[in-house]
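Recap quiz, item 2
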Amino acid sequence: VADSAGASPGAVVDHALVRAHGFAAFVALLISAVFGIIVAEQLVHPDVATGVPWLTWGRVRYAHTQGIMLGWLGNAFLAFLYHGVPLLTGARVTSARLGWWLFGVWNLAVLAPGWVLVLAGISQPLEWAEFPLPIDAFVVVALVLAAVQFLPPFFRRGLEDLYVSSWYIIGSLIFTLLAYPMGNLVPEWVPGAQGAAFSGLWIHDAVGLFVTPLALAIIYFVIPAASQRPIFSHFLSMLGFWLLFFLYPLNGTHHYVYSAIPMAAQMGAIAASTLLGVSVVLVVANLLLSLRGSGFVPRDIGLRFVATSVVFYLIVSIQGALQAQMSINQAVHFTDWVIGHSHLAMLGFATFAGIGGIVHAWQRLPAARYNVRALEWGYWLLTFGVVLMVVDLTLAGLVQARLWESGAPWLDSVRAARPYWIVRALAGVPIVAGFVALLVGLTTRPRGAGPAARDAEQRALASASGIAPRLAATSAEGVS
Amino acid sequence: MSYLVASVAGVAFFVMSVVLLGVWPSRVLEQQSRAMAPEHVLTLTASERRGREVYAREGCAYCHTQQVRYLHADTLRFGAPTLAWETQLDYPHLWGTRRIGPDLARQGATHTQDWHFAHLFAPRAIAPDSVMPAYPSLFDGSADRPLQAARDLVAYLETLGRARELAGPEGEVRAREACACPDDEMAMMALSGTMPLDASPARPRPRGEVPAVPAVADLERGRSLFAANCSGCHGSAGTGDGPGAATLRPRPANLAEHTYTRARMVDALWNGTVGTSMSAWRDHSPADLAALTDAVLAFDATAPDAPVAADELALGARVYAANCVQCHGAAGDGRGSAASELRIAPTDFRAQRPSLSVAVRALAAGIEGTQMAPWVDRLSDAERLAAARYVRSLFQGDGAQ
């Protein structure tokens, strides 16, 4: 039985790799956020970096999104997997040596050279695939290493009664390996509109087969482990899993509505987007019901990030289903609305889940430092920043949509966006401050503060809700 | 066993998505392209291909889409929706999913090379409110010293929309017949032949057709529109020496040294000036065009004419008749017999009167970037002065138009 709250199974967790990927994740997050601030600032003061080619808007934007997806979320997910997979399977991951190779490839053969190359002007102009092809080869190598590292424990343990997180982890590791080469290679051989059809697929697969499943794996893991209550319904969990893996890949063409791509494909993708919105309501309902009793703002920081991530997930998915509809898409597509949407997805939903996973794992590292106060600050700064940015960009998108539709001169839409771009750039301040606070939270206070905080948390939880006698039983049920 | 079924099902989901949304549409598009494309589509030259690489590496596609959608608002602003065959040489595609700047699918032939160089070197020198990044690293210190990368990039920009323009009306007919898609409303819209291929409001068009504009305009509004849209080239005082002006050939007009009729100015704003960096401003409302016109006319600081001796005027007329009518026309309307051969339309002196000093200077030195040649070697000082006085006398004002 994999009880992450218990003491003994933790022995199979490789603490050093959790820490290494956790730190790498936060460093990549801070660097990527700085890239984000640079591009946001350039929309307000376009000449701020003029004359420095590697700081040009286009190149830094490539570095920003690739850094967030591969550097931050990739490392955050790996940190979680080193904590979660042994606890889910009761077995060690394949090899610590392999783990350090994976760490090295991911950070030193993918992320660092990828950043250097796109900033130097060697890149691929495909969304969520901007790192050039040689880097893509290393990504595929790393994904194979990750599959070898994390899949065998599931098979070794036997596949009966896989918990839903395990399903998501297995699915994501396999499907990212399939989707990544498709999205990065096919548009290089298949021209124009045809290539765009494949790009659309990948843009949504990156979110749907890599980011979302691993974020949900964290969410499904942390909620029962931290709240000591089982998931509301395992049936709904599994129904959600299959619906998401069926529907996510079918969304791709909704990035090219009203384009030359055959209307049947566009319509199919729009229908799938609508159904996906409905499915996510189902998934989120199950998750929110599982969070009953944890309070509106859970006290445990890891759980709190995860709970907030669930709320962002609901909003972003309903938004996504709506903006795929032709009547809404024709207005808001190409505007800042979509940029708001992608930040709600990557910075709201996925990043909050990633932080939740790392914080949760950190609390359970015997020698980790853990500063609750700093983490509290991080949570509130980040929540404020994300909400401010998303609301601001959504409004900007509506203004742009209205002006474009009115036939006003193009530059009017640029002028009108300026106040919103100022607010968006300023929203970067609490966001980066939040990231710094989180990093402080994971690096200050005496060693061993994490487990101490966790124990205090769980004593309080148990006494407050009077469920102490049931604790052992529920946790076993919850995460088995 | 159930896990085997689940794995097969899972992989099947992914394969299904790739087939339904990737492989199948791609096949349809390929067949469509083959049937609709002209027999010979011009491929990119080496320079244009390198320019495309610059466009790709600088992330231009992340602010400028290259995909006109099948939507009324898109076709009004950018032109005919993008057909698959137009993109069949794009490896990889540069469609983009965000428009901070306008769509560029039909950008070719909208601006001059000078304009592109000045704009890439310092976008805000041309358009003060633009947020486009500047690319001085593509230049050797100045907009008129483009490096190879800048030349390549501009060469590439000139290709955007070219294939379909070259295919011409026959190409549209061919595409319409090949499509055979009477049930596909959007395809019919794209191929109806009723919309201009390039609807860009900035693309200069020949003089002539203008909208009706109100006679009374808001001068203050005109001044702020001028500052926002025109001052980059024409300067905030209209003297043709704005921050973007230095490298444009011909230079932007010095509005203080010219008297224009209202009709001429509305025409210049609505149609731009073909062959020069003067864009059209068709996305502005008639009221705004009228306001801008007033603002421009108010810059006129040319001195009132001193009386001209009759014999000097007669000399000017003789010089003009002997040397200028081929281009500027016997009546001075810019429609001489050679005018249609010229890239830039000769000045219509009935609607536009240069100051004496501007006219004298143009006669002596010519106008760089146009076919107006220097006459200093062929006409004496007195002849040139007389000709300058004569062309000024041709101005008719608004009443006569």
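The beta strands of chain B are 258-260, 352-354.
Chain B is about 45% helix and 0% strand.
End of item.
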